[in-house]
Amino acid sequence: MAPPRNVVKIAVQMRDAIPQLIQLDQAKPLAAVLKEVCDAWSLTHSERYALQFADGHRRYITENNRAEIKNGSILCLSTAPDLEAEQLLGGLQSENREGRREALRCLIPLASDMTFAREVISRNGLERLGTIIEDGDDLGEVLALSLRAFSELMEHGVVSWETLTIPFVRKVVCYVNMNLMDASVPPLALGLLESVTLSSPALGQLVKSEVPLDRLLVHLQVMNQQLQTKAMALLTALLQGASPVERKHMLDYLWQKNLRQFIYKNIIHSAVPMGDEMAHHLYVLQALTLGLLEARMRTPLDPYSQEQREQLQVLRQAAFEAEGESLGAGLSADRRRSLCAREFRKLGFSNSNPAQDLERVPPGLLALDNMLYFSRNSPSAYSRFVLENSSREDKHECPFARGSIQLTVLLCELLHVGEPCSETAQDFSPMFFGQDQSFHELFCVGIQLLNKTWKEMRATQEDFDKVMQVVREQLARTLALKPTSLELFRTKVNALTYGEVLRLRQSERLHQEGTLAPPILELREKLKPELMGLIRQQRLLHLCEGTLFHKISSRRRQDKLWFCCLSPNHKVLQYGDMEEGTSSPALESLPEQLPVADMRALLTGKDCPHVREKGSGKQNKDLYELAFSVSYDHGEEEAYLNFIAPSKREFSLWTDGLNALLGSPMGSEQTRLDLEQLLSMETKLRLLELENVPIPERPPPVPPLPTNFNFCYDCSITEP
C-alpha cells in the first residue's frame, strides 16, 4: 500500500551517530518531528536543534520551506539557527585572531540562508561585522571574510543599503584606494561599493567623490580577471548614477587616459575568455557612451542660432567654395543668396533653407554633426560624393543631405542610441572599443556605402526609400557579424553588394514559393508530427545538459549564478548555486530538486512573480523578454521557481522544454524557425528524384469509369 501523499521517506544524519531512516509526516508540526528525532538519539532540549538539508548550502528547514523535502532527501540535525548565530557572533568578539577567523569561515556558508541571516541581523551581527571592517586591524584574510559575510547578509534585503554610515563607506573606500597585500580584499570592497552606489544615490555621490577614476584604472590594469570585473562594475555604476554632464566629463577623462585602447587590447583580445559579467559591463559602457549622443539627436536645428548657420555655410563651402568664388564675384546680395540656395539644393537638402530639413527630431543636430565630421575628416571623399552627384541628371543624383539625415536615424535605431541600458544584455560591439569617434566613423562608412549602393541600383529620387532599405539590410547583417575593427567592418559591408542582397532575397523568396504548392503543403503537414517530436527530443536533451542562470535582484545585476538541469529520466529538475568559471556540476552535487509531477504551469514575461515585483519601467523591458517561472505545488500553497534566461535562444529552448514536460505545445519563435528548417531539408530530400519535374498545383483528375469491363481477364478460361 502506497504511503499517503503528505508522508515522505527521508534520512536524518548527525555527526558520530547512526543515521535514522524515517517517514516524515508533512502535516505534523516541525517541532514535534524534531522531538521524535532527538528522542531517537537520546537528546534532550529538542528546541536547541534544527534540521538542515545535508547537501549544498545546508539551508535550515522551516515551516515555510518544508514542502521542498522529497522522498530520498537527506537531512542533518544541527544547532538551532538562533543558537548558532549567537555562538558565531560571540566568536567574532574573541581577542584571538584565529578564533575570529574560524567564526567568519563558519558564518559565510550559512549567511546565504534567510533564516540564519535574520537571526544574525536581529542580534546586531551587521554592526559587529561593520566594526571589524572599520577597525581594519587585520588587512588580510579576516578583513576579506568580514567583507564577504557583510555583503552576503545585505543581499537578503532585510536591511537597506541606505542605512550604512558615512564612516563605514569611507573605510571601505580606503581599502579600494590603498595597496593591500591580500589580493582578495579589493574585489570584495569594490563589489560592496557597487551595491552602495546602485542602491543609494546619496552614498553613491560619496563613493564618486572618494574613489578617483585613476584608482579604478589602476585596478583595471592588473591582470586579475576578478579584480578587473569588479572595477569595471563600480565604474559603470558610477557612470549610471552621474548626471549627463558629469557622465560626459567622466567619459572624456577615461578616453584621454586610453581606457578604450586598454579594453580593446587587454580585455577583449585577452588570452583568457571573457566572463559574462565583464561582457555585460562593456555593453553598459558602450550604451552609456552612445547615450551621450541623445541630446544632439533630440535637439532640432535653431534657425536663429548664428553658430549653427555658420556650420551649414562651412558644409556648403567645403563642397562648392571654388565654384562659388568664381561664379559669385561681383554679384549682388540677392544673387548671392540665390546661388547659396541653389548650392544647398545640390548638396541634397530638400528645401532651399536647410534649417527646415534639420528640424526633424530625431536625428536633429546629430545629422549635422555627422555631415560636418565627414566633410572635415574625409574631405576628398566628401567632395567626390557631392560633385559626382551634382554632375548627374537631376533624377539620378544621390542626395547627400537627405541621405545623411536618414542614415543617422538608421544608425541610431541599429545601435539603440537613447534607449535605457538592459540589466542582462551582453551584446557589445568590439569595433566600438577599437575606434575613436566610432559612431561618426560608422556614419562615414555608411554614407559612402549609400552612394555605392545608389549607383549599383541605378536609383532615382523615387527609389530613395528602397535604397535606404537595402542599406539598412547591409549594415544590420554586417553588424550582426560583430567585426572587431572598423576596417574589417568596411571590408565586409562593401562585399555585401546590391547584387548579393538581391541574391539572398531571391533565394529566400524561391524557398518560400517552392514550399507553397498544395502538394508540398500536404507533404509538409504529414512530416510535421515526426519533426516536432525530433524538436521536442532536442529540447529535453538541452535541459538535461543544463544552463547557468544569473540571479537578478531589484537593485542590481548580481554576479551570482545558479545551475539548473533536468535529470536523465526527465522526472526531476535539479538546481543549485554555482561560482562563475566552474564547470557543469554533477547531478549529485545539486542540492535542490523539483519533481516534474509537481509542476503546474509555465509563466512568461509580465506574468512572472519576480518581474511583477520589479515594476514596469522601460529598463525592465529586457527582463520581460527573458523571464519565465515554473509554478509548482508547495504543500497546500503554490510556489515558483524563477528564471532569467541569459539569452533569447536559451529562453526559447527552456520554455519549449518545460512546455514539453507539461504536455503543452511548444510555441516559441525558435521552434517555428527550427521546424521550418527541418521541413525544408526533409522536403528537399523527399523531392530529390523530382528535380526539374514541374509539380502541378492540383492532382490530375481521376478518369470516369468505363462503360463496360469486358477488358478484364477471365480467370475461368484455361489456356490450351
Automatic annotation (TrEMBL):
Transmembrane intervals: none
SUPFAM superfamilies, sorted: ARM repeat, PH domain-like
Signal peptide boundaries: none
InterPro entries found in the cross-reference section: ARM-like, ARM-type_fold, ELMO_ARM, ELMO_dom, ELMO_domain-containing, PH-like_dom_sf, PH_domain
ELMO domain location: 307-479
Keyword Cell cycle: no
Domain of life from the UniProt record: Eukaryota
Alphabetical UniProt keywords: Apoptosis, Phagocytosis, SH3-binding
PANTHER family per UniProt: ENGULFMENT AND CELL MOTILITY, ENGULFMENT AND CELL MOTILITY PROTEIN 3
Function: Involved in cytoskeletal rearrangements required for phagocytosis of apoptotic cells and cell motility. Acts in association with DOCK1 and CRK. Was initially proposed to be required in complex with DOCK1 to activate Rac Rho small GTPases. May enhance the guanine nucleotide exchange factor (GEF) activity of DOCK1.
Protein's name according to its UniProt entry: Engulfment and cell motility protein 3
Lineage: Eukaryota, Metazoa, Chordata, Craniata, Vertebrata
